[in-house]
Amino acid sequence: MNPTIAxxxxxxxxxxxxxxxxxxxxxxxxxxxxxLRATGNNDLTLSSHVLQNFGLxxxxxxxxxxxxxxxxxxxxxxxxxxxxxxKPIPREVIVVTKLVVAIxxxxxxxxxxxxxxxxxxxxxxxxxxxxxxxGILVGGIAYSAVFVALGVLSRNAVTIGLLYALVWETxxxxxxxxxxxxxxxxxxxxxxxxxTDASMVTSTVGLPVAITMLVVVTLVAAFLxxxxxxxxxxxxAE
Length: 238
Description:
The chain is an all-alpha fold. The protein has helices at about 5-15, 20-40, 45-70, 75-80, 80-85, 90-120, 130-155, 155-175, 175-180, 185-195, 205-230.
């Protein structure tokens, strides 16, 4: 990991309009949680649905998409990546640094708000809150790796990422069991399912398969990003 690249990336991410999106979605989750708690509609079933459908299925992929593509795609598009590629820095160090920044942002703006929302709603009842926090963390790592790779591989990374999150995982996942099982969302839910006794939290994927796929997808995505960055001519970034 390169501290200088990390610092520059953090500044760029938190200084852009993207920062408003990073803050807006988690604030909405927290406001919703406070409203449900204030009105007494924070039973375990509804709270679990909020953490799953808002926190895991909506907040996480969107924030990971913003963070994952944002840490590197704009630099490739505007040519600023040239200044990094001309330095004697291994490509894998660049990718790992960008990935660490993306994961940190996802942790701050998705994992922590989900943890706070869960504590507001149900505390630690049935371990639902820590279960979803950990599920979102491991899912955030995989999502971040995928979207960082997309940011390197394609100029249409945001569009492709949205199609994956909204069409594949959400739309097709509702009707096609195969699509539902082959999704980061379900793998993350499987981790949460294993950590809570709440019967309403269920995944279609077994825990061993889920963990294996999360690790494989993360490593493959990081490899593809590194491979593509190595083959990216410095001249193309000008």
